[in-house]
Amino acid sequence: MLASQSQGIQQLLQAEKRAKDKLDEAKKRKGKRLKQAKEEAMAEIEQYRMQKEKEFREKQSLIMGSQSNLSVEIDEQTAGKIRNLTGNYKESLENVMKQLLGMVCDLKPEIHRNYRVTD
């Protein structure tokens, strides 16, 4: 009877060891699956991020390209206006100087009309 109890205990210990081994194996598989799922999710996130960055760069280049064209056009218009103003300045400079010198040099001394002689 003692031998059969000892044998029963041995069977229980072996069954417990097999159950523990199966649990350990299941935990390892679960860990591997979680790690694989995490890696797949990270790869998917990276792919999505790269796609969105590409779309952003395309939109940015489209907008910046049109802005640079606009900037060049504004620069050309500004340069044209500056040339125009410089030309007008050079054309008017001599006439303005003649008028100014004429007003300064050609003085006609006269008594102001409101001047009253006081005795």
Automatic annotation (TrEMBL):
Please name the Pfam families in this protein's record.
Answer: V-ATPase_G (PF03179)
* Molecular-function GO terms, alphabetical: ATP hydrolysis activity; proton-transporting ATPase activity, rotational mechanism
- Looking at the record's lineage, which domain of life comes first? Eukaryota
- By its UniProt entry, which InterPro entries does this protein fall under? V-ATPase_G (IPR005124)
One GO BP annotation here?
Answer: synaptic vesicle lumen acidification
Instruction: Provide the Gene Ontology terms for cellular component.
Output: synaptic vesicle membrane; vacuolar proton-transporting V-type ATPase, V1 domain
In residue numbers, the region (Disordered) covers 19-38
UniProt KW keywords: Hydrogen ion transport, Ion transport, Transport
Protein family according to the UniProt entry: Belongs to the V-ATPase G subunit family.
Stated role: Subunit of the V1 complex of vacuolar(H+)-ATPase (V-ATPase), a multisubunit enzyme composed of a peripheral complex (V1) that hydrolyzes ATP and a membrane integral complex (V0) that translocates protons. V-ATPase is responsible for acidifying and maintaining the pH of intracellular compartments and in some cell types, is targeted to the plasma membrane, where it is responsible for acidifying the extracellular environment.
| PANTHER family given in the database record | V-TYPE PROTON ATPASE SUBUNIT G 3 (PTHR12713:SF5), VACUOLAR ATP SYNTHASE SUBUNIT G (PTHR12713)
Q: How does it assemble?
A: V-ATPase is a heteromultimeric enzyme made up of two complexes: the ATP-hydrolytic V1 complex and the proton translocation V0 complex. The V1 complex consists of three catalytic AB heterodimers that form a heterohexamer, three peripheral stalks each consisting of EG heterodimers, one central rotor including subunits D and F, and the regulatory subunits C and H. The proton translocation complex V0 consists of the proton transport subunit a, a ring of proteolipid subunits c9c'', rotary subunit d, subunits e and f, and the accessory subunits ATP6AP1/Ac45 and ATP6AP2/PRR.
What protein name applies here? V-type proton ATPase subunit G
Organism listed in the record: Phascolarctos cinereus (Koala)
